[in-house]
Amino acid sequence: MPDVRRGRAASERLSFAVPRLPEDTDAWLHVVSGPSDTAVARGALDLAGRFLAGSQRVLIIDGGPRLRLHARFAGEARWGVIECLTGELPVLGLVQETGQPNLYMLTHGLPASRTHWAGLGRLLEEARPHFARTVLALDADAPAAIGDALAGWHLEGWWAGGARAGRRAVKMADRLAIHLCDLDLTATPEARLEALDARLGGRESAATLSDEAVVQERLDALTRDAVDQALTAGPGEGATVTPPGAQAIPPPPVVLECDLQVRERLRFLLWMRRIQSDELRAEIARPARVAPPGPARP
């Protein structure tokens, strides 16, 4: 079937949408591109900073083979989008931390002769329950197959670095069938994580800090209770009691062999445990709801 988008008349091309703020939209997926690799990296970081300011968990996906976002965001060049598209590895098992709270990254992956962009929708569905926003960074010459895979998704498209009427931007918008809006990068002067520190610093209010203190106090109390129970409890059945004055002999170390897939799975399980711990902290900090008083009885 021929690609009808390539045959659009100039008046029917999507080009650019009305300017708006990314944080004011309700789209979960945000696609960003630009005239250069640096502009795309700044755009992805700018979008992430806007969402992080709202205390949202953000995932940046490197969808361009030349962007190398891992080098800019202190990540590792290993498995990523390419391997997830083929279904070989789970998305959460390959997500990397950036060092910035609530900001995660999925690298592009190892070089491949063919990219299975048809699996992009499945990749996004797999990541969706775990992140409040996702930023998909693309090269300006991204293939039309990406637009086909994103058909039907509620998303926002952004062009970083100005030149919104440039030929490359218009061609990309028409090729992917995605409306693009100019993205202001004034608040992100460089494509480095350090640029987020000044932007996000001091955004927490005194109330938030107070809530964190309450959470920490309750966690400390739970820890003290657990230690007291361990000290007062006697040895269990089958336990070995060391006589007074005798030195306990530690058991020999256990050597385990582990291949790469098992190690990635363990990394994923540890990451999920950390997320569950964060959610527990948030649940403890959330004030209890008090039911409104009912009507007075006669």
Which terms summarize this structure?
298 residues, alpha/beta, Rossmann fold, 2 domains, seven-stranded mixed β-sheet, 10 helices, 7 strands, 10% strand
Note down, in words, how this protein is organized:
- GO terms for molecular function: kinase activity.
- Keywords: Kinase, Transferase.
- It comes from Eiseniibacteriota bacterium.
- The structure is a single chain.
- By secondary structure, the protein is of the alpha/beta class.
- It has two domains: 10-200, 3-Layer(aba) Sandwich (Rossmann fold); 204-224 and 270-283.
- It is 38% helix and 10% strand.
- Strands 3-4-2-5-1-6-7 form a seven-stranded mixed beta sheet, with helices on one face.
- Helix 9 crosses helix 10 (260-285).
- The chain starts with 28 loop residues before the first strand and ends in a 13-residue tail after the last helix.
- Mean pLDDT is 76; it is low at 1-13 and 204-210.
Topology:
Layout: E1 29-33, H1 37-52, E2 58-62, H2 69-72, H3 81-85, H4 91-94, E3 96-97, E4 103-106, H5 120-127, E5 133-137, H6 144-149, E6 155-160, H7 167-176, E7 180-183, H8 194-200, H9 206-232, H10 260-285
Parallel strand pairs: 1-5, 1-6, 2-4, 2-5, 6-7
Antiparallel strand pairs: 3-4
Helix pairs in contact: 9-10
